[in-house]
Amino acid sequence: MKYDYDLISIGSGSSGRKVALAMHRVGWKTAIVEKDVEGHFAGSCVCSGCVPTKALIEMTRISGNHQKAIAHKEKIVERIRSGTLRSVEERTKVPVIRGLASFVDEHTIQVGDKKYTSDIIVIATGSESIIPPIPGLRESNYATSTEILNLKEIPDKLLIIGGGRIGLEFAQLYKELGSKVTVFEGLPQILPGEDTEMANIIQTHMEKSGITIYTDKFVDEIKEVKSDGKSHFTVILDDGENKGEYHGDYLLVATGRKPATASLNIDKMPVPIKLNRSAIATNAYMQSNHPNIFAVGDVMGGVMMTNVASYHSGVLLKNLKISRTFTSEWKEMILPSFPAIAYTEPEFASLGYTEEQAKAKYGEDSVVTFKFMNKWLAKSMIVDDWDGVLKGIGIKGSNEIIGAHLFGVRTGSIIQMLVLAKENGLGWKELSEMIYGHPVLAEGIEALSSNMLRLTAYTE
Ligand SMILES: Cc1cc2nc3c(=O)[nH]c(=O)nc-3n(C[C@H](O)[C@H](O)[C@H](O)COP(=O)(O)OP(=O)(O)OC[C@H]3O[C@@H](n4cnc5c(N)ncnc54)[C@H](O)[C@@H]3O)c2cc1C
Hints:
Blueprint: E1 5-10, H1 14-25, E2 30-34, H2 37-40, H3 43-47, H4 50-63, H5 66-92, E3 96-98, E4 101-105, E5 108-111, E6 114-123, E7 127-129, H6 145-148, E8 157-161, H7 165-176, E9 180-184, H8 196-208, E10 212-214, E11 221-227, E12 230-238, E13 243-248, E14 250-253, E15 257-259, E16 275-276, E17 279-280, E18 293-295, H9 306-322, E19 340-342, E20 347-352, H10 355-362, E21 367-373, H11 378-382, E22 389-395, E23 403-408, H12 411-423, H13 428-433, H14 443-456
Parallel strand pairs: 1-2, 1-6, 2-3, 6-18, 8-9, 8-14, 9-10
Antiparallel strand pairs: 4-5, 5-6, 7-15, 11-12, 12-13, 16-17, 19-20, 20-23, 21-22, 22-23
The structure holds flavin-adenine dinucleotide.
């Protein structure tokens, strides 16, 4: 059977684009479908995620000026978006099909009034904000991380539902710009899933800076009143014992993301692609119930980060280069160690197990931990990092880095040396024995690892 293409990626983000371009380079006829080329080519990371948020955060830190930060963000996003589009269309000549793709059958998609057939189809449609079913919320003029990126005025009182990475990054950004910020997190700690002790340290640091944070409190209701063309929001908490009403002029909902599959028309296919909630259900090779349809990136569910999305694509394209259909040479998608970073001020970077996870896996008595306070380090004092804490997690008698949770200036970059060590069989011993520059922030890792070596009592 002859198809229009060997491979079509639905979605131009970090994951889909990478597969289509790599397979084009080895001679396949490939195409990329993107529903919003002018606004979203190159995907969420570039247009509404990593790049714009960090551009706003960094320029606000440098200049303290909202307008400058917005101009900086817009310049960078447009430069990468249009540069990537130009590179794809003009240099590689991989066709970009403009419009919303939906499935007709397992080898055919429809975009507008045209149908395209392909031997292999890669679903890389990313994710979208979850809007929780809080009474009054959906009818209100709330913002998600996408809308707040285009906010031109600094709110007086910013209310944020969700104390994960995205909520906290915006909380600090607008606190810095002068808003009074309140964060509501339903779970017992901010940064759910991260090491509890570290989450509490970060919460204290943020509260000291003037951000109000409520944990373990689900929002019960939202009310919105409009006057003079402006919205006034009330967040209502009522856990039986405590009742509270909190007022603000801007409401951000940052309660997580879910795979974006609703637009794909999956349920109308002769044999629908199987879903796991809204994620594409895949086997170890990222293959759906149709062996020619794969999923990569956020749409698989699980960890939703660019580095992970890109890793999925790397595994898939290596497999496809071996063979279009399954062979025993295909590699399973098993995630290696990867850093998760919150671009708070200072940054929080984590790797491996939390203390809770390590104790559950290895037993309370086997796990050792150490916290290095950055205020003990000359370079940290020099860069004004007084609250930073580097936490290591190990097990007695072992050199292995079980976990590392680093809250401090530029830890998002520093953590990479622990990733390199962990992935290559090195541990606390090797990290403590090499010579570090001086004075540098990485010396915190030297101190952390010497203490971990002492506590694990590892000997070769
Ligand atoms: C505010 C925010 C901050 C973030 N910060 C970070 C960070 O600092 N570090 C990090 O690692 N990750 C971060 N992320 C997550 C990161 O952006 C995503 O994990 C990554 O972009 C996922 O890539 P993807 O290829 O799976 O999907 P995407 O990059 O989202 O690409 C999917 C593309 O598919 C298109 N599309 C969807 N449906 C269709 C359809 N039916 N037809 C045609 N096109 C379609 C979309 O328009 C989109 O362009 C952040 C996310 C957000 C929201």
